[in-house]
Design goal:
68 residues; two-stranded antiparallel sheet; 21% strand
Length: 68
């Protein structure tokens, strides 16, 4: 019961031009997002939880929750 081995079809791939890399070099740097409102501006009697990104001494960035 030996079946004949059928070779897999060969894939032909084309290289795409790297237009994204060229666009990144000429595009201006995106602006950093601004906070929508400050904690003082919000009139609420409950504390608010906000998330900030904290960078430690070794350069790693992690999210951290802060109450305000």
């Amino acid at each position: 019961m030996n079946r004949p081995v059928i070779p897999a079809p060969q894939k032909t791939t084309r290289r795409r031009p790297r237009t994204a890399a060229r666009r990144k070099a000429t595009a201006p740097a995106p602006a950093a997002p601004q906070p929508r409102e400050t904690a003082e501006a919000v009139a609420s009697d409950r504390p608010l939880l906000s998330w900030v990104l904290v960078t430690d001494d070794s350069g790693r960035t992690r999210p951290e929750a802060r109450w305000s």
